[in-house]
Amino acid sequence: MVDTGDFASVSLSSEALDQLPVKPKGRRVHRDATGALLRVRTFVLPTLRLGGLELHDVPGIENLTSPYDDDGTIGAALLGRFNALFDYRGGAITLFRRGARPETIDEPGWFVFPLPDPLTLPVRFDPLDRTYSIGLDSGCGSTLVPAKSSLGRALYTNLGEADAQRVTDSLTGETVLLYHVDHCLLDDAYDLDPTTCAVSGRPGYLGNGLMGYDVFWHNTVFFDQAESEMWLRPAQE
Amino acid sequence: MEAMKGLLLLSLCALLVLFGSADRGGDVALGDLPSDSVSTQIPLSLGGSDNHYPYVTAMVEGIRFG
Fold this sequence. Notes:
A: 2 domains; 6-stranded mixed sheet; 5-stranded mixed sheet; globular; B: alpha+beta; two-stranded antiparallel sheet; 6 strands; about 30% helix
């Protein structure tokens, strides 16, 4: 899985790690994007090939928590070395040298936003009256997972439980509140998705919450690491 | 009582070391695109229980994953 919310270069499942002639080097405490602390084994992969990219001496950690049957994740420390174009509908991720951009960036229809941190951007949610720093997490299957202590509390305070629907979180199995937010504004310029929903549950760590699947599905997303910018172009529905 | 205080202090120190050292695992991999390439395109498929997660194929030590 390509997971911009995983801070490591590479995480591998225990089963995948066992298939490799790689010996874990040690253990350390790792914090994931939801704020959970995990004690993981560390290792170094001599080579990893991803498309035309060949990497050497890739540091990795054992992924102990994936609820899915995957082999592992490619994370932010590796992706962050490149400019990256996420095109879900086109079925591809393209990695560029820093400084390089896709040719389509000159076409009309793009919105550009500053990324104060590598993967977080300021977002305003109606009817809340302040801006929240939200992490972009391709490994987050929900539209939005607000940090419980900040955005989650604000939604609860402003909208109350009557406006929420109780659902079961697919990841943790816990019962959480699902809110429908009318407007989700990036930099006051772009209403990301008028049907955005918010699930209040986990504490959150990357900013005031995480935005996941819907951002990537409804837009082509380009991260320009050198310029600290994120470019969004609404996908053709 | 003093022994208890000492034990408590030691426990606090151990917790600080444990959680204080928690990091984001942000070590950087070495290597790059081939010198004649500006970019590389990696096919992805959407998977997981609700087809919301981007999956790619990676070769690690000659073994194909994904």
